[in-house]
Amino acid sequence: MMLEENTNKVVIAADIRNQIKCYRQGAMGNYSTAFSVSVKKHGENVISLAKRVSSQVLNICQHPQKEMLVLACYIHMQPELIDAVAISALGDFGSKAGIFVGRNMFGYGSQNGYSITNLGKIKSNIIAEAIFIPPASPANKKTWGVLTVNNHMKICASKLIAES
Predict the structure, then answer these.
(1) Distance CA 65, CA 24 (A)
(2) Contacts with 97 (C-beta within 8 Å, 6 or more apart), sequence order
(3) Would you kindly state where each structural domain of the chain is located, as residue ranges?
(4) How many CB atoms lie within 10 A of CB 52?
(5) Fewest beta carbons less than 10 Å away: which of 12, 57, 95, 97?
(6) What is the superkingdom listed in this entry's lineage (predicted)?
(7) Residues contacting 120, CB < 8 A, separation 6+
(8) Is 142 in contact with 162 (CB distance < 8 Å)?
(9) How far apart are alpha carbons 14 and 64 in whole angstroms?
(10) Rounded CA gap, 97 and 83, in Å?
(11) Is the separation of the CB atoms in 44 and 6 below 8 Å?
(12) Are 137 and 86 spatial neighbours (Cβ–Cβ below 8 Å)?
């Protein structure tokens, strides 16, 4: 995606099922956090770029304070601020705090982000194949939804269509 879209930064959702005590094996849900990875592209070699991205992802995932930063912010925000963030940054609600948080922490307003959300890999005798349509985000220009079922990976892209 970074080469295709000519971007140095991508937001990645990370599975945290094995890190939380309330997860029950086989349960479906949004057990994830997100973080961004920025890598300057040196040439167009996809393998070297993938290695640098992988190195950053591993580094972030080895430090819970980096990996869980977005979740920590959500936990400490008042629910009213979370609602005000989107409404202020994208609509007509005049909250300076909401606009600040929406633009600086969530990327609302610029709508030029890129994101990859991977639901993971499963084997199933019941589900032959599946596709994951990623959730839209007002901060992202393009999002990939990735799901692997019975060793067959499918990628679904959702793209923001800006109003003229």
Answers:
(1) 24
(2) 81, 84, 88
(3) 111-164
(4) 16
(5) 97
(6) Bacteria
(7) 15, 147, 148
(8) no
(9) 12
(10) 12
(11) no
(12) no
Per the CB < 8 A criterion, the answer to whether 140 and 126 are in contact is no
Q: Give the integer Cα–Cα distance in Å for 142 and 128.
A: 27
CA–CA dist 123, 127 (Å, integer): 8
pTM: 0.66
Q: How far is residue 57's CA from residue 12's CA, in Å, rounded to a whole number? A: 9
Residues in a beta bridge with 94: none
pLDDT at 151: 94
Contact 118, 146 (CB under 8 A): yes
Structure token pair of residue 4 = 């295709």
User: And the tokens for 159?
Assistant: 């793209």
- Cα end-to-end span (Å), the chain: 25
The three-point CA angle 133-60-28 to 5° equals: 35
Per-residue pLDDT of 38-90, as tens digits, reads 888 766 788 888 898 899 999 999 998 899 888 888 888 888 777 778 777 77
Nearest to 77 by CA among 101, 104, 60, 108: 101
Q: What is the DSSP letter of 127?
A: -
Q: Within a 10 A sphere around the Cβ of 31, how many other Cβ atoms?
A: 16
- Asked whether the beta carbons of 162 and 111 are under 8 A apart, the reply is yes
Identify any residues that bridge with 38 across adjacent strands, giving them in sequence order: 9
